[in-house]
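In the current project phase, the collection of sequences with tokenised folds has grown. A representative record is quoted in full directly below:
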Amino acid sequence: MLREDIEGERDMTFDLSDNQPVGGKEFLSFFVGGQLFGIPVLQVQDVISSEPVAPIPLSPQEILGSINLRGRIVTVVDLHFVLSLERPDTVGDQHNVVVECGDEAYSLQVDDVGEVLMLNDADFEACPSTLDKEWRRVSSGLYRIKEGLLIVLDVPMIVERSYEAAA
């Protein structure tokens, strides 16, 4: 359900321990290679439009380089490479979804940023066995929404995969 669709359905109970609606979570949705993905909003530090990326010599292919975000060096991860998706022929502005993993900041480079979606925990499904093996490795599950499938990415697994490629 899109955020606008649920505005009238805000009669939810909140668990005061974590300020989340009971039975639901918010996800930032974004597109990579035409596919809809999402990550929990609480993992998102920032969303910025295209920034010049400084290459990092001898880095693995999934690492595009780094950007300077208000004086902080942020490693840019190429989700097209991680997910084995082709880049669009017409390269427009890419977007950077900045996340924190451990004590480091990472930018997940995406094609376009969508909406913040409130999704019900009861609608969450495990990754089906028919999902690509690499996608299963870096995702925690999916939601079936009216726009199609929203695949929930596991940010720590994406970062871990990048480090494994460097070893």
About this structure: Helices lie at 3-6, 79-82, 133-137, 155-166.
